[in-house]
Amino acid sequence: MTQGYTTHFSPRFSETDGLGHINNTVIPVWFEAARDPIFKIFVPSLEISHWNLILAGFSVDFKAPTFYGSDVKVVTSISRIGNSSFEVHQKCYQNDELTAEGRTQMVHFDYETNRSQPISEGIRAELKQWLVD
């Protein structure tokens, strides 16, 4: 079991809102970018023509403001693995303070049949490396 993997972001001035905070639309974009290593488990080349995942839903809880001028750390882990779906759990930290937490439901999907498909044992084993309680 792991604590997850870490991705770092440097907030850009253009990502701030009128109150001087990082805009609430930015953190879900950072979370998506931090999911690339998970995407590579399913599609190592990241070629869209081979894509086999869909995002079924996500939620973000904002815990504290995130600001311009100080780097951000996003920690990504897996919180649940089902038959054809899994949940990604992510936390955003700035200066060691939790500023946002998100959960994303992903589905292993066959675009030709337009249906979910079971996650193979090989992929399941790779996902389990990132599984946290």
From TrEMBL:
<keyword id="KW-0378">Hydrolase</keyword>
<protein>
    <submittedName>
        <fullName>Acyl-CoA thioesterase</fullName>
    </submittedName>
</protein>
<dbReference type="Pfam" id="PF13279">
    <property type="entry name" value="4HBT_2"/>
</dbReference>
<comment type="similarity">
    <text>Belongs to the 4-hydroxybenzoyl-CoA thioesterase family.</text>
</comment>
<dbReference type="InterPro" id="IPR050563">
    <property type="entry name" value="4-hydroxybenzoyl-CoA_TE"/>
</dbReference>
<dbReference type="GO" id="GO:0047617">
    <property type="term" value="F:fatty acyl-CoA hydrolase activity"/>
</dbReference>
<dbReference type="InterPro" id="IPR029069">
    <property type="entry name" value="HotDog_dom_sf"/>
</dbReference>
